[in-house]
Each structure stands twice: as C-alpha cells, then as structure tokens.
Fold this sequence. Notes:
By secondary structure, the protein is an alpha+beta fold. The chain has helices at about 25-40, 50-60, 100-105, 145-150, 155-160, 170-175, 185-190, 225-235; strands spanning about 5, 15, 40-45, 85, 125-135, 140-145, 165-170, 195, 200, 205-210, 215-220, 245, 255, 260-265, 275-285. It is about 25% helix and about 25% strand. The radius of gyration is 18 Å and the shape is globular. It starts with a strand and ends in an 8-residue tail after the last strand.
Amino acid sequence: MSLTLHPITPSFVAEVEGLDASVPMSDEDLHALEQAFWQYAVLILPEQHLSGQQHIDFARRLGPLETSIQAYRPGQKLRVSDEIADVSNLDEDNKVWGHDSRMRMFQMGNRLWHADSTFRHVPAYASLLYGRSVAPFGGHTEFADLRAAFDNLPAQRQSQLRGLIAEHSIFYSRAKLGFHDFSQEERDAMPPVPQVLVRKIPQTGRESLYLASHAGRILGMPEEEGKALLDTLTAHATQRQFVYTHRWRLNDLVIWDNRCTLHRGTAFDDLRWRRDFQRATVADVGNSCAA
C-alpha cells in the first residue's frame, strides 16, 4: 500500500490517504508514515474504523506506549485500557459526566496549550487521538508549530533560550485552573521534572521551542521572571500564523509530534453532547535534557 499526502501547508499538517490503521502496517508504510510525521508534525488519517486493541497495536508500531496517568489514582476504575488516555466526557459507566465530576475538572486542563506528558521524566513522542463520537458543535483541537515559532524569533533571542531548563509538573497546569484535588500517592508518583526549553529534532535537525502549560518555572531564574518568559513564549508560539485548527469528523485519527507542537481542545457543551475521544501515547526515548 502506498501513502498519498495532502499537505495543509508546505511544512505543517498533512492528511494521509491510503493507510488503514486497523490492519498490521508494513515496514514500507511505517517508513513512509514516519517520514511524513517528521516533516509535517501533525498527520490526519480520516475514516479509520478501530477497535481499542487495533488502536493500541497501530500506535505500538511507532514505539512503546505510556500508561495513562488515570491509572495512578488509587481505586480509579478505568473505562478503557490503561494504555489509552480517556479524554472523553464520559464517566466509568459510559455516561456523560456531571457538573461536579472530578474527571471533568481535571480534563479542563486539556483546554490549555500543552504538549502531552512533558510532566513525565520521559515525555511523549507521538500522540494518536481517535474520535469515536464527535460533538456537533465545538470541541475542535488547535495545533501550534513550535519549530516555525522558534525560527521566527530573532537570532539573539534564540541564543538566549538555548540551554535553559524548565521544570514541568501536571500540578502546575491544573493549579492554573484552580484544581488541586490530588492524592498524596498521585503527587508522589508524578514529581516535577526538568525539560529543555529548546530542543533539536534529531530526524530533521530543526530546532524547536519545547513548551507546555505544565512548565511552571525556569531553573536558575527568579520565579516571576521565569513565568513571564514562559508566558511570553507561549503567546508568541500560538499566534495565528503558527496554528492549525482541526474540526473533527467521526473516525478521524490524528497523530502529532509532541516534541515540536502545542495543542489544546476548544470548548463544547460537555454536559450535553457525547464526545468519546481516546488517545494512545508513544513515549520518547528519554528525558529531553539528556539529548
């Protein structure tokens, strides 16, 4: 099977034609998919029909999978496999959650600009998000190209940023929303971790900002100064010229490179419309500071 790419822009986001993610992927198709992934950073595979296991099997071809952080909460009953991050608005009984749902408050963090799992010592490499049911209004996903954002900075600014280390934590991003409902076991399981502020993508040699709402401070910098720098860089990176908005269709599978993109979900009536989205997440090869 040969893949056909339909780029949205010359270097960011492409639709992929000719790949059925429900069947085992050949080495040839894997090579073509990886080449497209490294070039465009966000790939859209429409009209996929996947079971949970097929979703996991396809993602595993890109690398080892993370375990969902929802599995860290003692006594948490998962609606899906622990190799799938459940980013739906459904409770453990497969019903639309209520206004006071803890998971609802936690998931609101997905509406902040972030890259997946930068709060883990080994962050995410690729995310594969599958739309099993789609809200009729809203619920889009926006993606920002952090490579282009870095290229757009003055050379002096680029030089200043290289070598800086940010501290990331899931508790930083949730605190921005006023959400603090974490057990001590969860806090112990997810301590703050360092990540570089600028990283080079080895397959392309391109430099990229490495940002997320999980970043709370810059190591070695006064706290307020570091926060201001992170806010300034995020505002720069999410300007309209760097952003693509994906309007979901039923059975879309979207794959993105967490090393060089930001994303966020947009609002929808989550107490009314059923939105079943499930994400398999491929782990990176190591902490970004070790690269």
